[in-house]
Write a structure and sequence with these properties.
By secondary structure, the chain is mainly beta. It folds into 2 domains: about 160 residues, Immunoglobulin-like; about 240 residues, Neuraminidase (6 Propeller). About 5% of the residues lie in helices and about 45% in strands. Strands 23, 24, 27, 28, 30 and 31 form a 6-stranded antiparallel sheet that branches. Strands 3-2-1-22 form a 4-stranded antiparallel sheet, with no helix packed on it. It has a 4-stranded antiparallel sheet with strand order 4-5-6-7, with no helix packed on it. A hairpin with a 4-residue loop joins strand 9 and strand 10. It is elongated.
């Protein structure tokens, strides 16, 4: 049921309607987005809260990019599976940055069409088109389609019209407006330029901006970029600091500085991207006989809820098998005490008003009397800027017969960009 085109369209309409009609009831994000990037000397993925500049870090199994001279390495987020692509210049991997050990999602692979003379200097990804953009050390922009297992297939390449002596050092995309940003550095000169072009023609430059300061700090050469299509903020780093400027994608103009963060780890960034906000879980899972006891039942996600993500899915795992479930969804975060009505075994923490949106019944599959039931409810997020920043809550409930009900944890999550 959840894989049919008609159901996907119904889901998109439901989300768009919630976004358009409930602005006054929406809470702020459960956690702020983070800028995230690979580090140079001891390969790790460092991330910083865009509001507080607080950092977190996890290790990654790549050789240090410092073994290649010049500006090398890149980072980009793939919201389809909540992974992050990282490259040391010649190789790339994909990891889960929300795990303490940077859990691998794809093995370390060589980057195609790449040698020590044209190493990767920047990565950017558009999940709605499934295209990965690469800037390299020979001042070429390449773009690839991404297949299963992180395999890359070259689509095309071009040589951008950057200034004499400049080198490409990083890239980012604005998927909402179809733009690509790429940074350059002029060796020996502070800061660098940011070129803006259409993703459909990356070498047809629309405008150029210069970034040289983070607060009162004079920046070194730029090495990475990130863009938040929802907040309309362009982020840039020289490895030591990260600066954010407001950016109008319609007029291609850069505005005031909105944040300056220092990389307190000391190991400099070699790339940059935006990691979407992380959901929060509230309340217990529970089952009531004749449902089997399923202590590991969990409501979670496939993918991140970002604009244009076609694979975002609201999942239920390890639930009673051979039963039916309903998803309850509403605007606003999960909140107690909730609604507890017999024969439910735990309260529904999805806000009661405005009226819930309920999707179901949906078969859980698996065997009756076991905890082998699963639901994967695809709700593709529309590329609709009205949805930016909307916090929603979701929770599953199900029926096993008689007075046998089960209730999942409640998730609060916010639609953003990557």
């Amino acid at each position: 049921m959840s894989d049919t085109p008609s159901f996907r369209r119904l889901s998109q309409i439901a989300l768009a309607a919630l976004g358009a009609t409930a602005l006054s009831t929406v809470a702020m994000a459960q956690s702020a987005p983070r800028v995230i990037g690979l580090t140079r000397n001891t390969p790790a993925v460092l991330s910083q809260d865009v509001g507080t500049c607080n950092t977190s870090v996890c290790p990654v199994g790549l050789p240090a990019p410092s073994t290649i001279p010049g500006f090398v390495g890149g980072t980009c987020v793939d919201p389809r599976d909540r992974g992050v692509f990282v490259s040391n210049g010649l190789q790339m991997a994909k990891i889960d940055p929300r795990s303490t050990a940077c859990m691998p999602l794809c093995p370390v692979l060589p980057v195609p069409n790449t040698t020590p003379s044209n190493p990767v200097t920047g990565l950017a990804y558009n999940e709605s088109t499934n295209i990965l953009y690469i800037t390299d050390g020979s001042n070429v922009i390449r773009w690839y389609s991404v297949g299963g297992g992180c395999q890359l297939s070259l689509i095309f390449r071009c040589i951008p019209p950057i200034g004499a002596g400049e080198v490409l050092t990083g890239c980012a995309t604005d998927d909402l407006n179809g733009l690509i940003f790429y940074s350059t550095a002029l060796p020996g000169t502070p800061g660098g330029r940011v070129y803006v072009a259409p993703q459909t023609n990356p070498c047809a430059v629309i405008c150029v901006h210069f970034i040289a300061n983070c607060g009162t700090i004079t920046m070194g050469p730029l090495v990475g970029l990130a863009f938040d299509s929802c907040a309309r903020v362009l982020w840039a780093t020289d490895g030591r600091v990260v600066v954010g400027h407001s950016f109008n994608s319609i007029t291609c103009t850069m505005g005031a500085q909105v944040q300056c963060c220092i990389n307190t780890l000391g190991d400099p960034y070699v790339g940059l991207c935006l990691l979407p906000s992380t959901e929060t879980s509230n309340g217990p899972n529970c089952t009531a006989a004749p449902c089997p006891a399923c202590p590991s039942m969990t409501h979670d996600f496939t993918g991140d809820p970002t604009l244009g993500n076609p694979t975002f899915s609201l999942d239920l795992s390890n639930a009673p098998g051979g039963t039916v479930a309903w998803l309850v969804l509403n605007v606003g975060p999960c909140a107690g005490p909730g609604v507890l009505a017999p024969p439910l075994c735990a309260p529904l923490l999805v806000p009661f008003a405005p009226p819930w949106l309920t999707i179901g019944p949906i078969g859980t599959g698996g065997a009756v009397g076991t905890c082998t039931g699963n639901v994967n409810l695809n709700i593709a997020i529309p590329m609709n800027p009205l949805l930016c920043g909307f916090t929603l809550s979701t929770q599953y409930l199900g029926f096993c017969g008689g007075t046998g009900f089960f209730v999942s944890n409640c998730l609060s999550w916010t639609i953003g960009a990557s």
